[in-house]
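::Amino acid chain::
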Amino acid sequence: MKTPSFRIPGIRLTNHEFTAPINYKNPSSGSLKIFAREVVSNANHYRANELPWLIFFQGGPGFPSPRPTNKHGWLNRALQQYRVLLLDQRGTGLSTPVTYQTLAKFGTAKEQADYLVNFRADSIVKDAELIRSQLLKPGEKWTGFGQSYGGFCLTHYLSAAPEGLAEVVITGGLPPLTANVDDVYRATYKRVLNRNRQYYERYPADIELVHKIVSLLRSKKVELPDCGVLTPERFQQLGISFGMTEGFEAIHYLLEEALITNAHGIEDLSFTFLRSLAGSQAYETNPIYALLHESIYCQNFASDWSAERMKAEFPQFRPDRSDGPILFTGEMIYPSMFDDYKYLQPLKNAAELLAQKSDWEPLYDVKALHKNTVPVAAAVYYDDMYVELSYSEDAAHKIGNCRTWVTNEYDHNGIRQDGERVLDRLFQMLRHEI
């Protein structure tokens, strides 16, 4: 279904809604709504039907596509030659949402888990193909652009349905094709160790400050304004920002306001700090991220709470350490999160079932990828904290017709930092102009 267009300065936007099966292997199991937003430059709207399509896959999992407010950044570059489709991946944004409220309709944790297994990259790509069949002309292909997890989705797309793709650009998202989830998290912990070192080198006074904060958290139960509990482990999860441009600064400035002297003359945690911290953590509003993050690495094996198990190999991350700085963790999901976050608590049993699931279907056909003929250009960030360089390089070597730009000019969010330049370079690579 197509709704009337609306305009903001520089661009025209049109909303689209599609109906997709919950489970493509069992269409009678029910359906859900998939939302996507078409974006066209005002300068090109008169010839929009002549423009090729570019579909954008957002990072995540569990986050919707960007909501455009202007024509800046990567979108400005894309709109010079494409009409862009911003896909709200199933379960996110204006697609049928996954939240603790919507999952409450299921009577048991098993029913919740059985529903959630349909929200990985394989189903997202099937949604894209369904949309392509309805929105594009017969036989017409589109360009795929994937950021972070969006690149994982496009790699599956190249495995499963390359006939739908004219070309592919990926930023910070060439996935591990065959690695075990434990090896992925071992590599990630090492990256996070390095980021902690860099953080405390930049802000050495925060070593003592963080010790004070964690000491307070260990001495009493601290409830957050969102009704969750701020444990030392939840506090450490702020380190997920360390892989982004200005992530160090975001955490440092947050910590600056952490301590106050209360009415009784006792040092305490400020409401400002607690409120800001709670607002910075999006696991409850985007629970797919917490529920399915480890599964994006699973192919015929269970995650079994890999990040939690691998953490035991890195005692440096213990929140009770006294022999050095207390370290922040990174892009890891822990079972304790389903206790500490109030609106994840109803999903705890489903999360456990998903962690123990061992029959996840393969996401990547390495033989098919080796034979790939779809042009692929990928930006690989040398210092990426979230997507391990060695696995991205391995994927690039195994994907046919794939060119990479390996750079340390940007962090993982390069397209937010300098999107127009990054995307333009990748387009030039596709066309062998550089």
